[in-house]
Write a structure and sequence with these properties.
The structure holds two protein chains of two kinds. Chain A contains three helices and five strands. The N and C termini of chain A lie far apart (about 40 Å). By secondary structure, chain A is an alpha+beta fold. Chain A has a five-stranded mixed β-sheet with strand order 2-1-5-3-4. Chain A is globular and about 35 Å long. The longest helix of chain A has 11 residues. Chain B is α/β, with parallel strands linked by helices. Chain B has an eight-stranded mixed β-sheet, with helices on both faces. In chain B, helix 2 packs across helix 8. The longest helix of chain B has 17 residues. Chain B starts with 13 loop residues before the first helix and ends with a strand. The chains are: A alpha+beta, B alpha/beta.
Chain lengths: ~80, ~230
């Protein structure tokens, strides 16, 4: 199982916080999220930045990225204003 | 120790305060974040600050920038901030640079103990991180957009902003803009991280990026570099 947490905009817009899904690639993960929460658009997920186990950052649509059992994936958005 | 700084002795020893007072800070950007950080550092007792910003105050800054008033509109931010903060601590040594960070002499960067990122654009944030790395200086980063913010203390070589931003040029701030309260919240968290870092306290965000969400009251570590 992969534990997914949503911060910031996705949490606020869709009242999403955490879920656990069976997924071995990012493509499967995105598909599982959208199946459970059809209101979350692909555009929103594509715009998010992903943090894997607080170590790795992913920006773009690397859908073939492998995930491992126990991985913690965060979907959020960064900010750059001041 | 001047009377005005004494309340800090409730949480710090005189020796710890002396370290804060003796730290020279290079603060880049005096907008929403930077103005509040400058205010916090001077009120804390930091004596020597290099203030860098090439902008003047505009009406659109009034919503959030501490030193933007109808009296300071049209004035260079560095000059207005210096004037206001010298009335808080007349003994502070505030050196102002009406320039962009790229135009700052290397002796200024080399002469600072810590760099603060208070700028509002991602490209410049990454440039400041590269500069801090090149000069071996710790970088106190902060950023905001809408209800959301982030901050962390980045040691030279951790390259957390490069990882975080990649080749992106804008974040949520492009759409959500910068409201009144988020810069003040994040800036004051930056000031408390400054205190913790300079006085070697536990819990400092050393090579960590903390996500701050004031809408949902969520404070979470997003990214951990090697400590």
């Amino acid at each position: 199982m992969v534990r997914v947490t949503f911060y910031n905009l996705l949490r606020s817009r869709h009242n999403l916080k955490e879920l656990e899904v069976e997924a071995s690639t990012m493509r499967e993960l995105v598909s599982a999220i959208q199946k459970r929460y059809p209101q979350v658009t692909s555009e929103e997920l594509n715009q998010a930045v992903l943090f894997i186990n607080q170590k790795k950052v992913m920006h773009l649509r690397r859908f073939d990225e492998r995930l491992r059992d126990g991985d913690k994936v965060v979907f959020t958005n960064f900010v750059g204003g001041g | 120790m001047k009377t005005q700084f004494e309340p800090i002795l409730g949480i710090l020893s005189p020796e710890q305060f002396a370290r804060i007072e003796a730290t020279t800070v290079l603060l880049v950007g005096l907008g929403g974040l930077g103005g509040h950080v400058a205010n916090g550092l001077v009120r804390l007792g930091v004596k020597r600050l290099f203030l860098v910003d090439d902008d003047v105050f505009e009406e659109k800054n009034l919503n959030r920038q501490l030193f933007a008033t109808h009296d300071t509109i049209g004035h260079y931010k560095v000059d207005a901030v210096k004037q206001a903060l010298l009335s808080v601590n007349p003994d502070a040594e505030l050196f102002v640079f009406r320039k962009r960070i790229e135009q700052i002499e290397s002796s200024v960067i080399a002469g600072s103990d810590l760099i603060v990122d208070g700028v509002d654009d991602i490209k410049t944030k990454c440039l400041i991180e590269a500069m801090a790395k090149a000069y071996g200086k710790p970088l106190l980063h902060g950023a905001i957009g809408g209800w959301y913010g982030q901050l962390g203390l980045i040691l030279p070589g951790a390259d957390l902003l490069k990882m975080l931003y990649g080749d992106q040029e804008a974040g949520l701030e492009k759409v959500l803009k910068c409201p009144t309260f988020t810069p003040a919240v994040v800036a004051n968290l930056m000031v408390s991280e400054f205190v913790k870092f300079v006085t070697d306290q536990k819990g400092v965000l050393r090579n960590r990026i903390l996500s701050v969400d004031v809408l949902n009251h969520s404070y979470d570590i997003l990214l951990k570099g090697d400590v």
